[in-house]
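Extended Data, panel c. Modelled sequence:
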Amino acid sequence: MIEWIPFNRLINLQKVREEESEMRFIATWIDGIRIIKGDLVEYTRSRIGSCGVNLKILHGSQESDFFIEKLTDYMELEGNIVYGVAKDMVTSQYIIVVPDEFSSKRISSNGKCIYCKHNNTSPAWCQSCDPWKATQEWTSGNKEIDNSISEFQIKATEYEKVIEWIPYDRLINMQEIKESNQETEEIKEESNSIFMATWL
């Protein structure tokens, strides 16, 4: 069963990505999802309380007819779970509240995300927030290169696996490496040069 979720029951909102059709946020739902406790005939209604969720905000969702259509389409897709619907009272956008896609990876020993305040998905890395942040505040000066690097950053699951744009002036002591051909003991002429350097 889905329910109406007052927007003020959603806290610690943090944008994790934006696409052509929607924005995705991670948030904490103060009330939490519904659960049934007990066994045999002794069942009681309860809630988990204060759990992480994702918020899907569709572009154009201020229009109720449009939102209802998109919500219905989303719920009819096999495997999709919807906890409820909310509305941002400032922007008038309706919101689909869905499970945190990375909840199974969040453990306390990984530390807390400084952005969304949830447990990280791997040591010092929140897969919801950090990939999006990694794509910001840098540019190679070439849009195609930027997009290519960003695609790899968005897919990163650990801090050590993030590739980044490195300004050329952060590389010093550059020295070309020449590979020796073991059979002829001659220096191979390669079309691509390889250098070693110090990364400041």
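The chain has a mean pLDDT of 85. This feature is highlighted in the accompanying rendering.
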